[in-house]
Every structure is written in C-alpha cells, then in structure tokens.
Amino acid sequence: MDFYSYEYLISNQDNSRLIKLIVVGLLVVIIGVFFFLYMRNRFEIKYKDLGIIFATTLLLVIAIQYNDYSNLLTTQKQTGQITGTIKETAKQLGVKPKQVSVNSTTQTDGLLVNTPKGFFRIDFNTDGSSFLLEKIELHNPKINVVRR
C-alpha cells in the first residue's frame, strides 16, 4: 500500500509545464518566420500554407495547455485540502506534519494515516469541514512511503 509523505504532497508535481511553454514559444517563432517569409515573397503560397498549419497546431497546443491548467488548479485545491488535514492531524497527535503520511492524494472518506504513533483512519463529516480520527490496526501492512 502506498502512503504519500507531506513533502510529496506540497511539492510541485507538474514538471512538464516548462516543456509545454517551450513548445508554445517555438511554435510562435516558427509562425513568425513563416509570416515574414510570406510577406517577403507574396507569390510563394507554401509559406502561407505552412504558417496556417503551424497556427492551427499552436491553437491546439494552447487548448491543451488550458485543459492542463484547469486540471492543475483542481489538483492544487485538493492538495491544499489534504495538507490542511495532515497539519490538523499532526497537531492533534502531537507530531510534526513531516512525520505524517496518507494513503491518498485527495481528501476522501476513510483516509488512512501513518504516523509514529501508529495508523489512524480519518472519517469526514458530510461537508468535509471536520473529521473523526480513529486509531486502527493494520494486519500484514506492506507500506511504501512515497517521498519527494
């Protein structure tokens, strides 16, 4: 069973953003070059066609970027909720948040928590604003703590 450390949850997990920004920048430069070549040689239609192809590709990449951005906002919101839960759990148990790990990256009912004081289950109320912390025993636990 995988447990995720506090450091893992607060670290930025989207390393592909830089690559996507480089691709967008490269496409903008290519479109600019083809536009320049087309304006210089108006009788060469191939530059116009290639510019249109790359502009369409740029629009597709921008649409994908927007989708990834909205997914990132949702993930950050969920991560913020779970890290808040970890902080509150650590406070109640008298341990540091860095010593706490959970079995899910999102706030779900029945969340399992691994601490130096043992394993606990968190049951949330209906709106998720408060929770019940209950000590449990795991039989044959095979724990893998995912760290940053």
TrEMBL record:
Membrane-spanning parts: 18-38, 50-67
InterPro entries in alphabetical order: DUF3290 (IPR021707)
Keywords in alphabetical order: Membrane, Transmembrane, Transmembrane helix
Pfam families (UniProt xref): DUF3290
Organism: Lentilactobacillus kosonis
Protein name, entry field: DUF3290 domain-containing protein
